[in-house]
Amino acid sequence: MRDGEMMKALELFSGAGGLALGVKNGGFECEGLLERDKNACGTLRANFSSRVFEVDIAEFDYAALQGQVDIIAGGPPCQPFSIGGKARGQADARDMFPEAVRAIRALRPRAFIFENVKGLMRPSFASYFEYITLCLTYPSLPKKAGEAWADHLIRLERVKSAGRPVDLEYSVLFQCLNAADYGVPQKRERVFFVGFRKGLNVEWAFPKQTHSRKSLDYAKFVTGAYWDETGATPSPQEQEVIADGTCRRRLTNDFGMLPPDEHPWKTIRQALKGLPEPWADGDADISGHQLRQGARPYPGHTGSPLDEPGKALKAGDHGVPGGENMIRFHDGRVRYLTIREAARVQTFPDGFEFAGVWTEAMRQLGNAVPVRLAEAVARSAGEALVRTA
Prior knowledge:
By secondary structure, the protein is α/β, with parallel strands linked by helices. The chain is built from 13 helices and 14 strands. Helix 3 links the parallel strand 4 and strand 5.
């Protein structure tokens, strides 16, 4: 890489482009985006100038991109490991981690970033989690024809314990990150795998969180700064917390009269600032800001309170399941987030367009990586690579 030249990124399983946009904002130039879904490809083409490859990743030939990619990023389909799905894991045909490893083996990038649902870290997937980590560590040692993944795991474990050098090896770190801890108005937990090619001698750790729950509580229940800033009135439940005083005393005891070092978590109310209340016919001046009728609460699906970060947006096979994609107002009313509101919760910019009808756009948003979280990880990784250049 020459001085002044931007590092190049390739995005796999691009979806709506949340991770790709975060990587771009983190200092990389996007060399291409791979995605098989027609509507998601429409979204990518509307928002990125990079080439979009509308293709099944298992059929993609990386030969033309060799030597052109510094980092590979992507979010392999999460349904095999999602708590909301059937959780068939490695037995699910949608498990695309092997394809992520194939891309690394073919392009030999300096680094990679992959993310997936927190459910991948469940005890029932412990062996496969180790298998994924070792496959990413030793991408030049693929599974042999007819070899079961469990046998491949044993072979990789032997290589690791023996400490033998291999043709292509990466130092891999993983961590579950909560998007709210990085300024995203949504409590969305995702596990990230970040790897750097051995020999680059990269020293890196996941970026420190910048926002916290305690700081939001301090602003609500000690100083009242949150209510002054937003002009909002506490909900009945929050008024009870204020009147009780226990939370105030605990936070004052922990931090004194100085608030926590981190910024407060961002809330739904703050995310939607400046957007008018949506109406059924939409707003000609605001793309995707049209009211969707039919929202209703039921046990377990009560919506996201205005003055908290939202619940993790969801994307189901038959549309959104309900509570996670709704706002809950102080008087108990609920309504669906509009596409534009959901995009703000995922920290997409207002000019970002989504292809497809409401249910399709919300599916893309529910599967997306929050842009601001992706940017925090990518920027930190990019800075580490620059130090080794």
